Amino acid sequence: MPKLQSNRTQDPEYDVTKASQTYSNIAAVLAGFALAAVILISQNQDVPQGADATYVAALRDRATIAFLVALFGCIASAFTFGVVTGEATSGTGTHATALFGGAGFALSTAFVFWGLAYLTKIYLSESIVQLTRWLFFGTICIIPLYLIFYLIDAIRLSEKIPFSGGLFLRLAWPNYVPIIPAIIISAIRIPALANLWQSAFIPVAVASFFIILISAGGALFISERPVNSPLSATFIGGCKVWVLVQSVILAMLALLTR
């Protein structure tokens, strides 16, 4: 009796449509958390004893904006991953769709931890604040890997090539060039970053909102492609640039983490 062949040419044991169901659930949970954080901030306007009211208000405003961006991104990602989950088979198209949906999910996760890092400054001790900062730094170091492996899977399925360390390094290192120096600079606590924190956060938040919006729209557009259609070199190059854009935003958030 002949063996049934999988629609996937590589790694038939991994099904991105099933994995996306889990990601959709996680995105929904994070959206609920972000909404709860916004409600908490709006209901509690007290200034801790001895704290600068203007400084506390600025922290609240930025944390609220971060959670609102995360809320929007998580909701958009939940719907996008729902589209991936609904695919009958898994192939290059579903991996590319998940990559673009994952971009919004990745940025939303980063904004959740960034907002926590600022929210703890208002209510908790310095040791907890530092722990939250480093949790954020760890998160933005992991996020590029999440997107890179989606891209690797799409490339492997399209070009029918095996995984290799060289392929991983070629895709990975450009995304850590902005992130690692940004973490180091932020950890050193250069005083000039205080002005950057005041002036650059809103543009970064607005840019992130549009990146999430474009990622969700791009994912829905790509989902209309045939599931196993090969990806062009131009499209793969665009995906590489798009992942790098996320890394630049993550690096900016790291610089804005005081």
Describe this structure in words.
With 258 residues, the chain is mostly helical. It contains seven helices and no strands. The protein has a single domain, classed as Four Helix Bundle (Hemerythrin (Met), subunit A). It has helices at residues 16-43, 53-85, 92-123, 126-159, 165-188, 193-222, 233-255. Mean pLDDT is 79; it is low at 1-12.
Largest sheet: none
Q: What's the helix-strand series?
A: HHHHHHH
Say what the CATH topology is.
Four Helix Bundle (Hemerythrin (Met), subunit A)
- Silhouette: globular
Total number of distinct structural domains: 1
What is the overall number of helices? 7
* Radius of gyration, CA atoms, in whole angstroms: 20 Å
What is the first-to-last residue Cα distance?
64 Å
The amount of helix comes to: over 70%
Specify the CATH class.
Mainly Alpha
User: What percentage of the residues does DSSP assign to strands (E)?
Assistant: under 5%
Average predicted confidence as pLDDT: 79
CATH architecture: Up-down Bundle
- Count of DSSP E strands? 0
Task: Please tag this protein with its features.
single chain, 258 residues, mainly alpha, Four Helix Bundle (Hemerythrin (Met), subunit A), 7 helices, globular, disordered N terminus
